[in-house]
Amino acid sequence: MAAEVIYMDNNATTRVAPEVFEEMRPYFCDLYGNPSSMHAFGGQVGRKLAEARGRVASLLNVEPDELVFTSCGTESDSTAILSALEAFPEKRHIITTRVEHPAVKNLCERMQSRTGHKYRLTRLSVDRQGMLDLDEYEKALADDTAIVSVMWANNETGVVFPVEKMAAMAKEHGILFHTDAVQAVGKIAIDLEKAPVDFLSLSGHKLHAPKGVGVLYVRKGTPYVPFLIGGHQERGRRGGTENVASVIGLGKACELAGRMMAEENTRVKALRDRLEAGLLAAIPHAILNGHPDHRLPNTSNISFEYVEGEAILLHLDRYGICASSGSACTSGSLEPSHVMRAMGVPFTAAHGSIRFSLSIYNTEKEVDFILEHLPGIISNLRELSPFWQNMNK
Amino acid sequence: MWEYTDKVKEHFLNPRNVGTIENADGTGEVGSLACGDALTLTLKIDDEVITDARFKTFGCASAIASSSALTEMIKGKTVAEAEKITNEDIADFLGGLPKEKMHCSVMGREALEAAIANYRGVVLPMAEGEVVCECFGVTDLEIIRAIKESNLRSVEEITNFTKAGGGCGKCQDRLEEILRATHAKSLTQIKAPEKTRRLTNIQKIKLIEDALEREIRPALRKDGGDIELVDVDGDFVIVSLRGACGSCKKSQTTLKEYVEKKLREQVLDTLIVEEGK
Prior knowledge:
The complex is a heterodimer. In chain A, 42% of the residues lie in helices and 14% in strands.
């Protein structure tokens, strides 16, 4: 790998912060006790785990014992949704959106199709800017709705949904509300005292903690059925020995995220805006995907018409620039991403969509390096494209 | 990330023969923007010899590399020679393509055919046919041809080669039908030994034992190994590797790439070989 990597794919995963790694380090070879043990050697690990739980809790403004440590965001999502369905067996309706991450989307679709249509599924549509229609949502809320699952922020476009309001609307109908907040936590302020959600999923590796650890927040008093059945860990809500070092790392990452939130929303946002404005100005037929304002501070998704995303990414890769695409060819599927299609992005643009997602580790120099090279890559690929030729005739 | 060969990468980064020939003798246009890849091929033909070929491609790295490879392959060939180039030839020229990307080589072959048909002033039969996959506009004739030429065995393979069925997925049942019908026809035509025959377990064990004795065991013994048949349960053939094979790190490869392949060829193409200790 090139020594100089310009990493702008932070919605895929993030660097483990050095402070996080240092915090974890003792818990592999030295302090390896089981937090559930009776002896003092394990007990000290248990106390450190409690500290981590407290740190996650303060980032979300919740009680520590409302948190369940899991293995990833996907496990948190599955646990929340399946728990609600099991807790209310007579309720047969699920509401979600057309732009959810596969962790929620595929589970909900499976609950509909693989159970012999035991469940009805409402998938809320989005407009051209990726925004939901709250009237459509209001109409969808039904007496037999078991759960609403709506992401806090979209991974591809960064569009932020009005989760506080939507959770309150569900609450009025006595319906459980889950939000997949893996992209939002750490990037924008989340206060669960104000947002009446019942379940919230987060994932460690999206906020500079390691891969393989996640959290499910379960509001006190919410009916809950465990997903992983086993020992008494997590007060019986999730069997399996805790991923101790990673949980400790996640605690530290949440503390850091709290401190860095201001920087994320000022300096990182300014870098993102500089990159975005520069690209849109330098490259003709470039379109911003997603609402320009209701958006995470770190994400920019731009379509370069008449060229294909995978080809762009491979050229960027030669310069050590890491980004991602909603194009069909990058995923192994043959159609562009479901998010681009749900937004009605024309095919001419969907195949050429590129997502840059920044972090606190990015610099202005890196942004300028991309601004220097990407316009040339696009124009070279357009020279190859038969559609570009027709465009200019 | 896709595992592309160095040759694919090289042709992608430095594509040969990009452009459009003015007043071309043959032009082939395939694919569309909606499909995610498209290719326009123009040919200069003098005295039945392709003296120049140029392309413009919209698509991923393998689509661009396949187009570039195609132009290199056909330049200097006669039209009759060029006509014989298959999509497999294009993929081979590039040192292989990931299976999900085989449709890129098919697109190259289709553009070549279209350009030659245009040169001769004829209409391609493929364009007629009945559209089976509406998402990508693939006709039954194109699908049948791909099944025959590349000996496709599953709907998934049809999608990898032609894209048909890769969109909404509604046509997958129809693809299954076409697949069965095409194979049934070729079986009766060439009277190939029936591979999907139903065998009793005893017959199966007998045939497997024969194949082991005749070819597989002697080959393994050369390397100091051996093999024993433990059980046959439906399509699952449980064997035990002995001697040098038993402790060899590559024994799983031997099992799948050699033993299973041989047994599928010689006994039944649905067999799955597994190791039992």
